[in-house]
Amino acid sequence: MMRLALALLLVVAGVQAFAPARSFRSSRHVAPRMGLDGMIGVGPETGNTVWDPLSLGSVSDTIKGEHSSVMPHAKWLREAEIKHGRAAMLAFVGTMAAATGVVFPGDLGGFHYEPCAWYDGLASAVSTNSFGMAQLFIAIALVEGNAFPGEFWTGGGEREAGDLGFLPFGDAKKNNRDLDEMKISELKNGRLAMIAMAGLFAEHQLPGSVPLIPGV
């Protein structure tokens, strides 16, 4: 197990070594700084106004001078929100599959999949299919290294937060959908999934701490 973990760390380090160098400070090609007021994400739940009780969206503007880049810009925070929301949505689907006993039928590549507890999924996958998990970790490292949003920290960067150029089902126009509507749907579902996963982990670690889902 330790050898596998060490090998994965070496792979990630190697991938990052070949990733293009990016500075945390803005380069010549910089997108205009944009606070929360210009971002998608508000809705009727908050009266169609920005809900930011901790002022995280403007914290980077409160520090001036040579320390102005100490705190992250709202664009960096939005990238983090979208990324964690997507991961949580995938995690929730996997959790529900494990909780209901859904597995891949038959043998896949010589591996036979058995149901396991949702909270033991990662350990089970690594122990039963270490080669497949190594491929997955390498793919994650490649995507993360290529899309590293270093310039977002100061509000720079050419691409929009969350836009990795991956549209397997086509763009919004092709599907006759409003792009802003789809972005809001992704944000809201991601936020809900993050809360759901936090609730599941809290109930597992502290039984009885979350109503309606006892004993998960």
UniProtKB/TrEMBL annotation:
Binding positions (chlorophyll a): W51, E81, H84, E186, N189, R191
A Pfam family it matches: Chloroa_b-bind
Signal peptide: 1-17
Keywords: Chlorophyll, Chloroplast, Chromophore, Photosynthesis, Plastid, Signal
A GO term from the CC aspect: membrane
Localization per Swiss-Prot or TrEMBL: Plastid, Chloroplast
Function field: The light-harvesting complex (LHC) functions as a light receptor, it captures and delivers excitation energy to photosystems with which it is closely associated. Energy is transferred from the carotenoid and chlorophyll C (or B) to chlorophyll A and the photosynthetic reaction centers where it is used to synthesize ATP and reducing power.
Family listed: Belongs to the fucoxanthin chlorophyll protein family.
Protein name: Plastid light harvesting protein
Organism: Rhizochromulina marina
Upper taxonomic lineage: Eukaryota, Sar, Stramenopiles, Ochrophyta, Dictyochophyceae
